[in-house]
Amino acid sequence: DNGAHVPVLVIGTGYGGSVAALRLAQAGVNVQMVEMGMAWDTPGSDGKIFCNTTSPDNRSYWLRTKTKQPLSNFFGIPIDKSIPRYTGILDAEDFSGITVYQGRGVGGGSLVNGGMAVTPKRENFGAILPSVNADEMYNTYYPRANAGLGVGMIDPAWFDTTDCYQYARVGRKQAQRSGFPFVFVPDVYDWDYMKQEAAGTATKSALAGEILYGNNYGKKSLQKTYIAQIKATGKVTISPLHKVTSVSPASGGGYTVLIDQINTNGDTTVTKTVTADKVFFAAGSVGTSKLLTKLKATGALPNLNSEIGKGWGDNGNVMCGRANHIWDPTGSLQATIPCGGIDNWAAGGAFAEVAPLPTGIETFASFYLSITKNPNRGTFTWNAGANRVDLDWQTAWKQPSIDMAKTIFDKINAKEGTIYRTDLFGVYKIWNDTLTYHPLGGAVLNKATDNYGRLHGYSGLYVIDGALIPGNTSVNPFVTITALAERNIEKIIATDL
Ligand code: FAD
């Protein structure tokens, strides 16, 4: 409420924010969570909370009048369509040279993502978070995160027979024929539920094409895991459609937090002021970086150090499709939840998930999201004239990612006698090199903060989300974000409360 004083305020309700709020509440602390997106707990007129990928409506995009689908074309024909402007679930946030996809709502990215819950290989961890004790992570915090998130693995025997993973079996067969290992990837989807979907005994979600705009049944988003636990403590208040715009030292100690309450048009209806003893920035890599960059530059938090806004990376994301022969159909029924990938990380720097193309018709296409060790890093800066934060990324910076992905797909094409699809991202465009699903960095651990996320320059201010991770995790990032948050909040509760 306006004028309130709270012990702890958490900005954002994604992975980092949910871990912080839960552990603080369990330690007896009252927590106020502030989320700019909607609650996503009420069905629309169609009886569903979330809309379907094949028929995006106002619920699909954050304050856009036209969809911006990652796969923008089919046979070269643009498939984006007009939608009413609304505080929808998926933000396609445009910066120069890159569109950054993010979830908006209570649960953050967990609402929109594929649920792939991957713990990086131990030997790669030193390059991911060099200042963090790997033994502690692999013995304690990765297991804690996996348990808290409800991570599970597909039944390999079922994988071998079900229609809905024919596309992934084609991906496996072709990878193996070219000498690449295919690995199963854990996910937070309820695999027993998916079996029931396939058997026709449960309402379909993964098998109904739901992805990107929310999942109505089988996926264990944070709403079903950490946030359900948070609600059970009775010590946490969550305010959706509230956006933090400023944090600055309060005269009597603690911090003054300015919050805009917005309506579903995105317009501010009320501006509120809250005082908090401690503030956790958990607005996601982009949200936290934008806030801190602005607050440092505009004089609200001038003592933040010069690492603010730096070290931002795209986790080396790049997409492509391949056209298979007519005797290699990928199936008209495709589970939207990916369950495996091609691991060529050590040799060429690419971990490529075999992704679905859930169009409902046979496409003979194989579709991949590659994660690569792209060395390029962007910087956020305050643009006073335009009153916004800019990111200096360039599309050409994806070239190393394309080269790394080609080590896999050029070889598979040569072996299979196949070609790339050129019609999925425009007219004659092989690579989608203008987006990322995995923004990381901008307030890097042990640089902008100490080794536990305490911001340099201010006691009682913390970063606890993907902004801490310096640009790459070698695999999909949310398990690492969650595990790092578990590690940091344990230390903070033990020493700072
Ligand atoms: P987020 O989850 O982004 O949460 C931040 C929250 O803060 C958001 O809810 C946001 O609305 C809110 N916020 C921002 N600014 C403010 C503000 N000023 N005031 C109030 N609230 C604010 N990762 C994987 O590991 N596996 C996958 O399979 C996977 N698939 C993905 C698919 C898609 C389409 C996308 C977009 C992402 C995917 N990811 C995946 C990435 C993953 O979802 C993110 O890495 C993760 O959500 C980041 O967690 P976070 O805690 O840093 O922030």
UniProtKB/TrEMBL annotation:
<dbReference type="Pfam" id="PF22500">
    <property type="entry name" value="GMC_oxred_C_1st"/>
</dbReference>
<keyword id="KW-0413">Isomerase</keyword>
<comment type="pathway">
    <text>Steroid metabolism; cholesterol degradation.</text>
</comment>
<keyword id="KW-0753">Steroid metabolism</keyword>
<keyword id="KW-0443">Lipid metabolism</keyword>
<dbReference type="InterPro" id="IPR007867">
    <property type="entry name" value="GMC_OxRtase_C"/>
</dbReference>
<comment type="similarity">
    <text>Belongs to the GMC oxidoreductase family.</text>
</comment>
<feature type="domain" description="Glucose-methanol-choline oxidoreductase C-terminal">
    <location>
        <begin position="436"/>
        <end position="485"/>
    </location>
</feature>
<keyword id="KW-0153">Cholesterol metabolism</keyword>
<protein>
    <recommendedName>
        <fullName>Cholesterol oxidase</fullName>
        <ecNumber>1.1.3.6</ecNumber>
        <ecNumber>5.3.3.1</ecNumber>
    </recommendedName>
</protein>
<keyword id="KW-0274">FAD</keyword>
<dbReference type="InterPro" id="IPR052542">
    <property type="entry name" value="Cholesterol_Oxidase"/>
</dbReference>
<dbReference type="InterPro" id="IPR006311">
    <property type="entry name" value="TAT_signal"/>
</dbReference>
<keyword id="KW-0285">Flavoprotein</keyword>
<keyword id="KW-1207">Sterol metabolism</keyword>
<keyword id="KW-0560">Oxidoreductase</keyword>
<dbReference type="Pfam" id="PF05199">
    <property type="entry name" value="GMC_oxred_C"/>
</dbReference>
<dbReference type="InterPro" id="IPR036188">
    <property type="entry name" value="FAD/NAD-bd_sf"/>
</dbReference>
